[in-house]
Amino acid sequence: MRSWVDRHGPGAPPTLDEASFAAKPINAYRFVTPRAGVPSDALIGKTRTYRVREGETLFDIARYFDLGYNEIVEANPGVDVWIPPVGTSIVLPTEWIVPCCTYQGMVVNIPEMRLYFFEPDPAHPGETLVHTYPVGLGRTDRRTPKGRFKVRGKTVNPRWIIPESIRREHIAERGDDRRVIAGGDPDNPLGKYRLELTGKAPYAIHGTNVPWGAGMTVSHGCIRLYPEDIEHLFPKAKVGMPVEFVYAPVKVGRRAGAIYMEVHRDIYGFTPSLYRSAMDALARDGLAARVDRVRMKEILKNSAGVPVRVSVEAARSAPAASSGGG
After folding, report:
1. 8 and 37 within one domain
2. Are residues 217 and 117 in the same domain?
3. pLDDT tens string for the chain (326 positions)?
4. Last residue of some domain: 221, 242, 263?
5. CA torsion angle for 146, 147, 151, 156 (degrees, to 10)?
6. Which of 44, 78, 195, 220 could, after both became Cys, cross-link 326 (CB 3.0–4.6 A)?
7. Do 94 and 61 sit in the same domain of this protein?
8. Catalytic position from the list 100, 131, 222, 264
């Protein structure tokens, strides 16, 4: 599938409002399903640019192009989130390295604040389709955990039974002592759709009544999606489907033989050494000898969360970000 920009060229998309968000394109990407011990060419998408129009915010632009707050801010340092200057060229970091190493069901990469949904491509045996969505995650005091789960249930207009600890917060913050919020209520933070997961703690993947939380650590541990994204994902997710929450601030992948690295903030402070994580990822795929270490160290310090070419053969002319198609 192609995005609005691909279909219509570099001009402006529709007016950025709730109607255009609901109708925005949500891409599916195809890649050859990796085999054990064989490095994958699993880079998807393409980095693009967009010029700001009157009245638009980075929140609006991020949502239309299915990016989170973290992604668009990191890719555009110094640009005012609420009042970006009209005509400013905004980088759209719509290119990703698929996280290793599970390519079925759903995978949430916590530092990236992004969910990947995998399904076999029936028209192309040996290839996998992936949809990807930005997500909001748990606050630093209620961190979204690593772990493996399964989808155990699906609910439309879920009722929110408020945990007592959260209820106490609501009472202290705003005098709200409700124990339950009905499904469909505008105050319900679960939105219209919820995927319940197995496990001792009641984690879920759901919508939201505050869309601007995508790409932020704002929840009590659950995974929040833009309303239109959860509506797209909900019918695809099946009860019993595997779900994994991983913690990979550094990802490594290939495209046309070249090696790329994508680095994200260690949002929960779980990774004592990004360099060690990078070397482990390269060693896993047998790529360590082909990487320019000086270039890699620069990226580990300064990467804006986009794939950057780090191959030794590209060191002399390595661009700030890759520009291949997806």
Report:
1. yes
2. no
3. 344 444 434 445 778 999 999 999 999 999 888 776 555 678 999 999 999 999 999 999 999 999 999 999 999 999 999 999 999 999 999 999 999 888 899 999 999 999 999 998 888 888 899 999 999 998 888 899 999 999 999 999 998 777 777 788 878 888 877 777 787 888 888 899 999 999 867 789 999 988 989 999 988 788 999 999 999 999 999 999 999 999 999 999 888 889 999 999 999 999 989 999 999 999 988 888 899 999 999 999 887 789 999 998 754 444 444 333 33
4. 242
5. -20
6. 44
7. yes
8. 222
Rounded to two decimals, the pTM is: 0.89
Please identify which of the residues 100, 131, 206, 232 carries the catalytic annotation: 206
CATH code of residue 234? 2.40.440.10
Please tell me the total count of domains within the chain: 3
Question: Which residues are paired to 219 by β-bridges?
Answer: 138
222 is catalytic: yes
Q: Two tokens at 164?
A: 């007592």
Task: State the residue range of the domain holding 114.
Answer: 4-132
How many whole angstroms separate alpha carbon 263 and alpha carbon 299?
7
Whether residues 121 and 162 share a domain: the answer is no
Answer yes or no: 232 catalytic.
no
